[in-house]
## 1
Amino acid sequence: MYRIAIFLLLFGIWIIFSGQFDAFHLAMGLISALFITLISSSFLFLDRDRSAGQCLGEIIRIPGYLIWIIYKIFQANIHILKLALTPGDLKGVESSLVKIRTNLKTDFGRYVLANSITLTPGTITVQIEGDELLVHSISDETEAGLRDGTMERRIAEVFERGKE
Amino acid sequence: MIIPIISAVLIALGLLFFIGGAVGILRFPDFYTRMHAAGKGDTMSMFTILLGLAVYQLQDPTPAHILVALKILLIALFIMMTSPTSTHALIKAGFMEGIKMWRRKDRKEKS
C-alpha cells in the first residue's frame, strides 16, 4: 500500500523532470522508480498505523491550509515591508522573545507549526522543547498574531483530526 | 493578452518584496531582526516571481510548457521547505552563542 504510493510519487516526479514521453525514457523511469522503491521504501512515511481514509482526508485538507498560509505570509510580508520602509527610528520594531505552549500531539504537527511560524515574516522559531516553542517576534503586532493561536487550530484541524 | 499582465504584476510584486528585504537588512537594529528581513522577504518574493514565470509559461499550453511550469512550481515548493529551516538554524546558532537582543531604551518590560 505504502510502496505503491511511494512508487507513484517517484514516477510522477520522474515524468515532470524528464519531460520525455517516448518508451525508452518512460521505461527508464519505471525501472529506477521501482528500484528506489524496493531499496528505500522503509525509510519514508514512518508513521504507518493510520488507515488509508485518514491519509486521504489529510491529503485533501492540505491544499486549503496551504492557501491560507500563503495568504498569511502575504499579509505579514506587507507588514514587514511597512516596517522596513517607515522613515525615522524604526517606530514599529519591538523585538521580543515569546514562549508559547502548543497542544499539538504529533511530531509532524509540531514541525508544521514551527515551519509555518518561521515562514510567516516577523516570527522565527528559535527552539522547541517538549510542548514549548521559543519564538522571536519583531513587533507587537506579530506577537499578538502569535498568541491568538489561529495557526495552531488550523494545523490541528488538518493533521490531527480524530486523535484527541 | 491577460496572461503577460498577470505574470508581470506577480514579478513586480516579488521585486517590491525583495526591496523591502534588502532595506530591512540594512536598517533593522540587530542580528535577529535582520534575519527576519533576510530570511522571509526572500521566500515570498521568490515565490511570487516564480509563480509569475510559471503563469507566463502557460500562455501557450502545450505539454512541454506545462511541464516547465510544473518544474518551476516544484522549485518554489523546495524553497518554501528549505528557507525556514536555514533561517531557523542560523537564528538558533545566534541564540546559543548568546548574541544580545536589541531593546528600545525606554521600553517597559513585560511580565
## 2
Amino acid sequence: MSPRPVFAAAYLLGGAASLWTTWAVGTLLGLSQFEVIFLNRTHGEGQVSSITSAYTTVSLVAIGIGLVVVLFAVLTALGSRTAGAIVWILCVPALAVALLALIAGGYDPAPWWGTLTRATGGATFVLVAGALVLLRLPASRAYWRDHGAS
Amino acid sequence: MRIRPRPAYAFLLALALAFSLVGALPAPAWADEYNPPGWTLPGQNIFDPDAKVDLTKRSFTYEQLAPEDLDVPEWMTEEQYLRALPDHGIRDDHDLKDEDFVEDYEAYQERMRAAGQGAQILDAQRYWLTEGYRNDPDFQRAYAAYRDGMKAHGVEAETVSEEQFWKSFGVGGQNHFLTAWRDYLDKPAGKTRKSKFSTYKNRYRNPLNARPLGEAFEGLYRTDNGVYTDPRFTVRDGKVPGVELPGKTKNGRNKNYRVDDLREKDDTAAEREWDLVVELKATADVDVKQLNDVLFWVCLEKNADLAISFIARPSPEGIQVLEKFNERLLAARREKYGAANVGKRAVYASVFPATGTARKYDAAKARLSGAIVAGGQQSWDSAATEQIADSPDDQESYDEARSITDGLVEDASASPDVDASDMAETPRPLGGVDFSTLELRYLSDTFTGAAGVKYAYHVDPDPNQKISFGGAKAAKLAADSFFTWLALPESAFTVNLNPEEPNRIVDERFGRTDAGRVLLEADFEMKKTVAKLIHPDTAAGLSYWDRLRGEQRCISMREWIVPTPATVRDNGTELFILDAPLDVKMETEYKKLSGADNCPGQATADTQHNEQVYRSLILPQVVKAVNTAPEYADLRRVYASRVAAQWYRERSATKETAYKSIVGSGDITPWVTTTGWKPKDTFDAYVKSYRDGEFTVKRTTRSGDTIYTNTYVYGGVDFTATPTAKLSADDLAARHPGVSEAVSDVSGGPATDRAGELWFGNETNELSYEDAHRPPSPPTLFWVAGLLPIALWLLAGGLLLRKRRRTATR
C-alpha cells in the first residue's frame, strides 16, 4: 500500500484530470454558443468551422492529457519511479496552463464559460501544486526508493 | 499614565463631531418651485431648467390585444345577426328610467325587502349590470339569436353562458365591437364610412391597446416610486370622493372619470402642502381634452396640485400647453380659495423614461405596415416603425379613426369599470415630417444571435405638417418593393409603354407587384410630363416647335428613365444611400441607335437637329421632374429600395443572410399588389390618353392653316442596372455628419442626424430581442455530463479511502 502522501498526490492529480474533463465537456457543449458569439462579432461572416475545430481540438487534448495524467498518477501510486518522473514532466506545464487560465481565461461574451475556465484553472493549479508538494515529501521519496530497491 | 491634551487633535475631533452632528440633522426643506411641496417628482423635471438629464430607461412588459382576439365568425358579421343585437350602449349606457326597467327594479327591491335583505339592495346601475339585464327582452332576443347561430354552424358546444355573452357588451368585448361595427355600417357610405371590416377592427383595437400599456407604465411608476406603499396615496384609478365633473351624461347620470392617484396633503408638514393629483401618461402626448374636461375640475374642486409624468418628453408645444394650463388652474384656484390658499404653481411635470414591450402582441405576425420583415424574421420594438404604421393615409382616415376612438372613450366613460384616459390618446399621428419623401436609405446585414437586418427610412422634416399623412403607405411600398427586387431576376426590372407593343409591357410576375405598378405609372406620367412641356401654349413649348426642322418636323421621342450612379457608403456590412438620382435618356443614346430610322423620309441631319433641340430644351426639365416632382415620389422610393436590394442581393451571394432564401426565388406572393391594378390598366390609359388628344399638338402655321401633330412618346423605365459611386468613411462623415450615429440605435423614435434629417429605423431578426440579447448560460446537459467526472472522482476517492482503511485494519 502506498504511503498517504503518494496516495493523496495521485488522488489530487485525478481531481485535476476530472476538472479538465469537466472543462472539456463544458467547452464541447458550449460550441454552438461560441459559434453564435463568433458570428455576432463578425456580422455573420467568416468560417465558423475554424472556431468549432479549434475548441474541439483543445477539448479533446484536455481530455487526453487528463487520461494520461490519471494513468501515470496510478502508476506513481503503485511505485513506478518512471511514472513519477513523467508526472513531473506533465505537471509543470500543467501548472503554467492552469495559472494562465486563472488569470486570463474566459470569454467575456460567454460569462459562464469564462467562470468555468478560471475556476478550472484555479482549482487545478491548487490540486497539481499540492500533488507536486506531496510527491516531494520525504515519505514519498522514501516509498519510491524502497519500492525501487525491493 | 497621564494623558496630555493635544490642542490640534482636540480641535480636529471637535470639528469632526460638529460635522457628524450637522450630517445627522434632517436636510432643510428648501422651497422648490418645480416640485410639489413635500414630494420630488420622479424622473426628469420638465419645467426646471436646472433639472438633471436622467435618461435611464426602465423597462416593462404588458399584454396587448392581438388582431385575432377580435376575430369573429363570418356569420356574426351578417346583417341578420347584427340586427338581432341590441343597442350598442345596452350594457354601460342603458336608460335607467326606462319604464320596463323601473318596474323590474322595483320588483327586485320588493323581493329583497321581503327576503329581509333590504340592506343589500343594489343601486339601479349595479342591478342592471349584474342581474337586471336578464329580464331585458332585447338582450334575450340577442342571446337567442347567438345560440341559434352557434347551433346552426355546428359549434353549439362553444356557446358561452348568458353572463359571458352579457359581459361582452362591455368596452372591448366581442358584442361591443359587433354593435359598433353595425352602427358604423348604418352611416352613409363614402366620406363618413370608408373602412373595410379589417381596417375597422384595427381602428377599434388600437385605442384598447393603449390601456394595457398605460396600466403597465403606471404599475412601474408606482412600484419604483413607492406609491403603493405610501399611505398618503388614497385614490388609485378612481374618482376622487366628493368630486363630480360638471354636466351629466345623456341618461342624466354623473359623468364617470378617473384619476391615476391622489396624494393627500400633510397638514403637519413644515412647508404648506396641497392635495396632489398624480396623472401618469405612457405617451409623450399632452391630452388637452383630459386636462380641460377632467383634471381641471378635479384639481379645482379639491384645491389640488397636479403632478403629471410622461414616459417620454412632450413636444415643446405640449410643454407650452402645460404651462398655460398651470396658469389657468392657478388663477381659478386663487379665485375660488384666495391667493393665500394656493401654492406658487398648480402643475408640475416630469419625464419618467421607460420602454414597454408587448408580450402577447406579435409584431412579426401583425407585420407592422412598412416594416422590412418577411419569412421567419420578426420585427423588434421600434417607436419609429410604429409611428410610421400609425400614420393615417389622409385627413379622412384620421378623422374616422378619431371618431371610433371617441366612441370608445364615450362608452368607457359611461362604464364604472373602465379607464378611458389612455384610450383617448389614440390615434397619435406624428407631425412635422413629410412622409412623401420617405425612402429606404440605410440597410445593414446584422447578426445578433441569428441573422437579421437593420434598416432606416430617410424622411425630410416639415414643421408645417401638423399631422403627417401617408407614412404607412410609403413605407409599405418601400418595403414591398425591396422584397420584390430581391425575389425577381434583375432582367425583369424594366417596363415599356409602346402602343405597338402591348405584349411587352412588363414581366408577368413583376406586373403583379406595386413596384411594377409604380414603374409603369411613372412611365405613363413621364409621357404626360413631356406632353405638357412641349405644348405650344407654353413659352418653352412654342420655342421648341419653332426650332424644329424638316418638312414633318419629325423627332423620335423614345425615352427611358434609367438610374445614374447612386452615391453610397458601403462599409461591408452597412449601406448608406446618400442619393439615388434618375436620368431620362433618349432611346438613341440609351440603345446606341443612330436615330436616322425613326423619321423615314426626313433628312438625317434634320432628325438629329430636332433631337438635339429636344435634348437641350425639354429633356432637362423632364429629368428635373423625375427627380423632384411629387408625382414621381413613388418611383424614387422604389428605386432607393432597388439600390438597397441590389447591395443585399450581392451580399447574399457570398454569405448566409436573413433573406437569402428570397433572393432570386421568383416568389412574389407576399408582395402582390393589393390595389387590384393590372399592367393593362396603365397601358389602356396610355392608349386612351393619346387617342383622346393628350398627346395631340395643334400648331398654326404662318399662313394660318392649322396642322395637328400627333406626338407619341415611347420608351419605358429600366431599372435592370443600379450603378453606384462609393464614398469613403471620411466622405460620409463630411457630407452627412452624424448619420452613422443616427442609425446606430433604431429602437426609439425617429433619430435626427446633425443635418436635421430624420431616420426612422428598425431591426429584424429570427430571434426575439430578448432571446437575441440573452447572455449565454450553461447548457442544461452541462450540469449532468460536465459535473460527472468530478462526481466520479469524489466517488472514487471515497471508495479508495474505504479500501485503504479496511486494508490498514486487517
